């Protein structure tokens, strides 16, 4: 229910529960159950290996994901960069988040 009304999704380093929430958000967007919104992964060093695997193995090798869905994901290292990524996402659509 929280994801349904989200305008952005900021994901901090975590474990299986964090991955579950991340993939749930991506799946709901991919299946058009919810509107597209930015997904921000905080901690480049933490997330880079997973994102590389998703792109190379799931995407390029097996074609199980749409490359356009990965455009929703940004990796950042600071809170300022996370806010900037959300602002950049909404500026393309001439929309502004309501916060």
Explain what you see:
The protein has 99 residues and is mainly alpha-helical. Helix content is 51%, strand content 11%. The chain is built from 4 helices and 3 strands, in the order E-H-E-H-H-E-H. It has a 3-stranded parallel β-sheet, with helices on both faces. Strand 1 (9-11), helix 1 (16-30) and strand 2 (39-42) form a beta-alpha-beta unit. The longest helix has 18 residues, at 44-61. The protein is globular, with a radius of gyration of 13 Å. The mean pLDDT is 90.
> Count the helices. How many?
4
Computed CA radius of gyration, to the nearest angstrom: 13 Å
How many distinct beta strands? 3
SSE succession: EHEHHEH
CA-CA gap between termini: 19 Å
Given as residue ranges, the uncertain stretches (5+ residues, pLDDT < 50) are none
**How helical, in percent, are the residues?**
40-55%
In short:
With 99 residues, this protein is mostly helical.
Question: Layout of helices and strands, plus pairs?
Answer:
Blueprint: E1 9-11, H1 16-30, E2 39-42, H2 44-61, H3 67-70, E3 73-76, H4 79-91
From the structure above, extract its key features.
99 residues, 3-stranded parallel sheet, 51% helix, 11% strand, globular
């Amino acid at each position: 229910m929280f994801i349904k009304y989200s305008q952005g999704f900021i994901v901090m380093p975590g474990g299986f529960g964090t991955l579950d929430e991340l993939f749930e958000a991506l799946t709901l967007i991919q299946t058009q159950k919810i509107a597209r919104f930015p997904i921000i992964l905080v901690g480049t060093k933490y997330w880079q290996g997973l994102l590389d695997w998703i792109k190379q193995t799931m995407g390029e090798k097996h074609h199980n994901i749409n490359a356009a869905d990965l455009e929703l994901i940004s990796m950042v290292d600071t809170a300022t960069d996370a806010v900037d990524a959300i602002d950049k996402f909404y500026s393309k659509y001439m929309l502004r988040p309501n916060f």
